[in-house]
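Notes, Module 5: Reading structure tokens.

Key idea: the token line is not a picture. It is a compressed description, and you learn to read it the same way you learned to read a sequence, by spotting repeated patterns. We will look at two proteins. The first is printed below with its tokens.
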Amino acid sequence: MLSLLLIAAGNGWLTTLHPGISALALAGPLLTIGIGQGLSVGIIDAQALGMVGPERTGMASGFLNTVKGGTAAVVLALFGALLLTLLEARTGSADLADRIAGGNLTPGSEQALHAAQFTDAMRIVLWCVAGLCLTVTVVVQLLLRPRSRTRGKAAALADGSLPA
């Protein structure tokens, strides 16, 4: 859960970005996100590979890496689609949104406006990612909470496996 909280915090912190922000100012939020992702990789791999026998570790590792790679590709595509959709809504043009997102603008007076539109859209996407991470953190917490013993006893009594 710490990893998800770090990723959420890093994305929230990254919303302080603005046109012309320095690399040093981006270092803190990006390192926070990176540490969160690094923590999750080790934990997920250890948990998943610990559930299979030693003779199946290679197969499980390959499957896990395929799922992680596929998931990353889908999330990146959704992230980009949301960003482009927000840019298109702000500019009123899919072509202009594509050029802004790709950095293919001719220098001029409108460049500052487009940089601001990109920054605003990116902030919304980053807050969405942070919110999603916080939601997943709550779900993980609920799934990992210990089951109460009385609920387990009541279920055993109900199905007849425990004498009354």
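Here is the second protein, with the sequence above and the tokens below, as before.
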Amino acid sequence: MLWTVRLSGLVGWVAAAVACWWLLGVAATPRPWTGPLVWGTVAAGCAVVRAGALWGLRRGPGRAVLEKAGESGGALGRALGFSFDSAGWIRARNGALWLLVTFACGALFVGLMTATTGDERVAALRDAGGRVSTATVVERPRAVREDLSEDVVRGYTSRLVVAVPDGPARLATRAYTHDEPRIGTEVEVLWARSAPELGGYVHERESLRTLAAGRWEAFPDGANGRDALLAFVLTMVTVGVFALLFTFTSGPRALQRLAWSAPLQTVYAALITAVLVGWRPLLLGGGASPAEGLLGVCGFGLLVLTHMFMAGRSIGEK
């Protein structure tokens, strides 16, 4: 039972890290996104198993085992001269957990920022053999609207009719451009020769070639990719500061109590499962209901805040 707790924690950590790695570049690939879904399921399953094993150790003779859970590494620990109750091991384990939390926060921001706004159209164009060409606007743009952020114009959305060299002379498309489009403006468009009725897709903040190829790329070319990289770095640095603070200001015993607390680990397991259930429809390519979306976002936020709150409570304890 003791090693069930330890191994499920290790496997769950690895699975969660792999799932977050997938999220960094999954937005440009065709759905369903089975990679993060499978690894996320493994991580959630390990969290549930670990919580169940901890409850099992709290019963009868297992309570004494739980109270001394970190005091030795068993036969393997004696052979290697290793102890699970050493301050170095406890802080390293807690640091690894915070590293995962930090990485997960960064990966979530990247996944949200790089998600394409034209999923259905991009998918249809890609399935029809989509390609990227430089086209010219041949009619006056319609429905032009400014994309404002804090009263600063970031770009323009519009409806364009473009001419594609060696392709349609008139191709209707919805567009997002950095500058206000006019007749004669050149834009990159994703279109399909076999299905011109699908129109085109123009978005100057996204890497159309990455979308057309459907390849995994953590930080694709384009403004969205650059913004995602910046957000990832800032998130890693910000949460990393808290990680260092909580890891080195709490005593080893306090950190050990949190790691082996059955009620707390049960809360974590429930929140991890809620995040997986909330994001599952999106990963499978379907539309998530408002309740599922709220469950996924709020579950993740509550998971991080709970982890920070419990770690903050242990500051100064031995």
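Summary for the second protein:
- The chain is about 60% helix and 15% strand.
- The radius of gyration is 25 Å.
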